Amino acid sequence: xxxxxxxxxxxxxxxxxxxxxxxxxxxxxxxxxxxxxxxxxxxxxxxxxxxxxxxxxxxxxxxxxxxxxxxxxxxxxxxxxxxxxxxxxxxxxxxxxxxxxxxxxxxxxxxxxxxxxxxxxxxxxxxxxxxxxxxxxxxxxxxxxxxxxxxxxxxxxxxxxxxxxxxxxxxxxxxxxxxxxxxxxxxxxxxxxxxxxxxxxxxxxxxxxxxxxxxxxxxxxxxxxxxxxxxxxxxxxxxxxxxxxxxxxxxxxxxxxxxxxxxxxxxxxxxxxxxxxxxxxxxxxxxxxxxxxxxxxxxxxxxxxxxxxxxxxxxxxxxxxxxxxxxxxxxxxxxxxxxxxxxxxxxxxxxxxxxxxxxxxxxxxxxxxxxxxxxxxxxxxxxxxxxxxxxxxxxxxxxxxxxxxxxxxxxxxxxxxxxxxxxxxxxxxxxxxxxxxxx
Amino acid sequence: xxxxxxxxxxxxxxxxxxxxxxxxxxxxxxxxxxxxxxxxxxxxxxxxxxxxxxxxxxxxxxxxxxxxxxxxxxxxxxxxx
Lengths: 439, 81
Fold this sequence. Notes:
The structure holds two protein chains of two kinds. Chain A is an alpha/beta fold. Chain A is built from ten helices and 25 strands. Helix content of chain A is 26%, strand content 26%. In chain A, strand 24 (373-378) and strand 25 (383-389) form a beta hairpin. Chain A starts with a strand and ends with a helix. The model of chain A has no long low-confidence stretch (mean pLDDT 93). Chain B is of the alpha+beta class. Chain B has one domain: 2-Layer Sandwich (Alpha-Beta Plaits). Chain B is globular, with a radius of gyration of 13 Å.
C-alpha cells in the first residue's frame, strides 16, 4: 500500500524531509501544503537578493529536473486544523487531506511591533520572498526608510534598502548593535562601518508611534520626540516559532512544538522539524532556541527518514553561523555572549542561536588588527565559544575544537600570551586529538 | 621548468575549490559569479570539490561566498578517482 506523506510548510526543513523520504520510498505519495506558492528558495539568500548581489532566479535551490524527480504534489492553501486521531488535515480551502505520516515544518514568523500605528501600510518585515517583493517595490518609490530591531535581519534590511538607493535611518534602542552577542569593540566596528556606508545610525532611539495618512505610513515619532518622515518602516525585532496550528490541534507545545530526539511530536505519526520544533534538554527541562538554516536542514533530513520507519536520533550540535555584518564576515560558534542585554530584540532573530548569548567563566579577548579579530571563550578544560571577525582562516580549527570539546587545559597557563602564540598551540592540540581519534 | 611565472599562479593551478557543505545556505552567489557558469552551488550542497576541467581557480566564488563556505585546497588526487 502506498504511504501518504504530508508536509506542512515549504522551507528548507520541508524540502530536506521530502528528499529524505524520496530516497527511501520511491512510490509513496508526498504532498506539500503551504501558503507560499513559490518553488523552494534559499531564505538566507533573500538578503543578498535585496542587496542586489544576486538576481531573483538565483534564489531557487533546485532545478526543474530535481523537483520533477521528487514527484511532489503541492497544495497552495493554509492548514487550519489537524485531526490526529483520524489522521487528516483540514485546509482553509475546505479540502481534507488524509495522511499516514505528517510533518510540521511551519517555520518561524517575525514578531510584530507594539507601537501605535503598527497596522499602517509600508510597515514591512522580512520573512519570505513575498515580503522581499514588497520591500523592493516600496523601495523603488521611497526616498527614506527606517529600520528598527537587532540581530542579523535588521542589518540585512538596512544594508539592502541602502543598496537600493533609499536613505536609511537605523534606530537602536540600546547604545550598541547586537549587544548580547558582540562585545563593545565588535559592535563599534560594525556601527562605524554602517555609518561610513552612509546609514544614519541612531542609538537610544525607539519608535513611539507610526504616523500615517489614508492608511499609509508617512513618518514616525521617536522617544526623543522627533518626527522622522519615511515611506517605509522595516521591522526585525525577532521571530517566533509558528505553533498556532499545533496548539489548536492539541499537540504539546512550549515555545515551539515539543519533539523527542526522533523529532516526533506528542501525537502519533506527526513529526516536526526546523524553526517550529523544540527539543527540551532532559537534564534542565529547558531549551536554547536556534533559528539556523543548517539545523533546520539537518532536522528535516532526520524527520523525513523517520517518517519512512527509520529511527534516527537528532543530536543537537554546537550552533554555528557565518554572516556578513556591514561587509565583514563574522563567524559565531558556541557560547560567546557579548555581556549586555539587547533591547532591540523581543525574541531570537533569524540566523541566530540563543546559545551565543551565554557567557562561560573565562574569557580571552584579543585583537589581531583593527578589523580582523578573534575572541575566544574558555571553559574549565575546553574552548566553549569563539567569534571570528574578518579573516576566517582560523574558523575551521576553532569550530572543531569547540564541537569535539577537545581538552586544551594544558595551555590554560599560557592564556595571557597574545593570540598569535595561542592559536598555533590550539591547532597543535587539535592535530593531536585528531591523530588520537583516527581509527 | 615551471609553466607558471609566480608562486600564486602555481599554487592556484595545483588547487581546487572545496566546500564546507554544513555552512552553505544555497544562496547561489557562487554560481552567479562564476565566469565559466559552473553550478558551484550544487557542488557545495553535496559537499563535493569543484572538479570541473573548466574551473579557472579564479577565486571569484571563494571571495563572493558570504558565508565562508568555499576554500582552496591542494589537489591530492587530481583524477578525482
